[in-house]
Design a protein that fits this description.
By secondary structure, this protein is of the alpha/beta class. The chain has two domains: 148 residues, Rossmann fold (3-Layer(aba) Sandwich); 85 residues, no CATH class. It has a five-stranded parallel sheet, sandwiched between helices. The radius of gyration is 19 Å and the shape is globular. The model has no long low-confidence stretch (mean pLDDT 91).
């Protein structure tokens, strides 16, 4: 059987999602045996330029060079996977918006600073993305299952349930009912409730749940925490998603 030819590229990010790939250890070794990892700067000396069966891209494009690189990767790949929330959603940094991004650069570097960077956007803003694997970082178990599905030429299934379902399965106490601004009810599952299981609120890094009642939950958040806090919470990872835009249609 012909091995799948895989490339893994990274842009502006912390490389945490690629580190989770490394952390798979024995599982990654098995993946390497069953595939041809043709290009991966983080863990390989191979620099094949394609074509590839599957290309994983971590991070968000913020320069013209980044944008050109992802377009080239798209052209050379049968499937493109957005690896992690920076690639899939624009990342936490995308919550600033264009005006705040520009103002932030001036405050940090001065009024005369000329930048070549652009406000962070998801990969899908520039290219067609076939598969999405969000997380900040990605969940190891979900990543391993995702890779296994691809090797068996199956399309990985996207979670259709909220983080709350995973909390219930682990018998966690509800943080939202305890007065914490947890976004679990409207966030796509798959993380195995990693943060709530440790007493931390869900920040929504897996993205908005499709079909979730975001308007009703926004109202509940506003009653508990006010409009400004609610908007700030929802912007963290949802700012580039249609669900957020439907809640705040006049947002930049």
């Amino acid at each position: 059987m012909k091995k799948l030819k895989i490339a893994i590229f990274d842009l502006t990010d912390c490389e945490g999602c690629e580190l989770e790939l490394i952390n798979l250890r024995e599982k990654l070794a098995k993946v390497a045996e069953q595939t041809d990892i043709a290009n991966w700067r983080f863990a390989s000396h191979n620099h094949d330029l394609g074509p590839f069966d599957i290309t994983f891209i971590e991070g968000s494009p913020i320069t013209e060079g980044d944008i050109e690189a992802v377009k080239q990767a798209r052209a050379a790949s049968r499937l493109v996977v957005a690896l992690g929330s920076c690639a899939d959603l624009g990342g936490l940094q995308a919550s600033l918006g264009a005006k705040a991004w520009t103002q932030g650069l001036k405050e940090v570097y001065g009024e005369k600073y000329q930048t070549k960077s652009k406000p962070p956007k998801p990969l899908s803003y520039y290219i067609d993305v076939d598969l999405h694997l969000p997380g900040c970082p990605v969940n190891q178990n979900e990543l391993a299952n995702f890779l296994s599905s691809l090797i068996m030429t199956k399309r990985p299934e996207e979670a259709r349930f909220p983080v709350c379902l995973e909390c219930k399965a682990k018998e966690n106490s509800c943080l939202f009912l305890a007065g914490k601004p947890c976004l679990g009810p409207i966030t796509k599952g798959g993380c195995q409730a990693a943060c709530p299981s440790r007493g931390l609120q869900c920040w929504g890094c897996f993205g908005a749940l499709r079909g979730g009642n975001h308007h009703a939950f926004k109202s509940n958040l506003e009653k508990k925490f006010g409009q400004e806090k609610t908007k700030s919470l929802l912007k963290n990872f949802f700012s580039n998603q249609e669900e957020f835009k439907s809640l705040y249609p006049r947002e930049e």
